Amino acid sequence: xxxxxxxxxxxxxxxxxxxxxxxxxxxxxxxxxxxxxxxxxxxxxxxxxxxxxxxxxxxxxxxxxxxxxxxxxxxxxxxxxxxxxxxxxxxxxxxxxxxxxxxxxxxxxxxxxxxxxxxxxxxxxxxxxxxxxxxxxxxxx
Length: 141
Known about the structure:
- The protein is an alpha+beta fold and 141 residues long.
- The protein has one domain (6-140): Nucleoside Triphosphate Pyrophosphohydrolase (Alpha-Beta Complex), CATH 3.90.79.10.
- Helix content is 22%, strand content 34%.
- The chain has three helices and seven strands.
- It has helices at 49-61, 112-115, 127-140; strands spanning 6-14, 21-26, 36-37, 40-42, 70-80, 83-92, 104-110.
- It is globular.
- The N and C termini lie far apart (47 Å).
């Protein structure tokens, strides 16, 4: 059986006090341009996933958070070209600063129920229902 290279990608579901989640729109000229996604990016060689996500949130949104504020939420596994992507989604309710679209064309806050209508990368779409259940569970406790 042929070995397929894998890449690990981390993303954050930033959740505000109203249970809304931040999505960013992929910039023109990039793969999957125009699609709405959870902010994040690739885990670099020698990096821990949580450290990579802290770095990506600073680079993409200009916000600061700590690895301790990231809670593993769910994951997706999907082919991307000749590689296979493992997407680790973390929830985050605590950060410093106001998110700005430093590496995206736009940002918007949506309730999980509103996200299904958005055009999102194939790996992100199945995570919405899991994220909705996680947010509802957090609101009930």
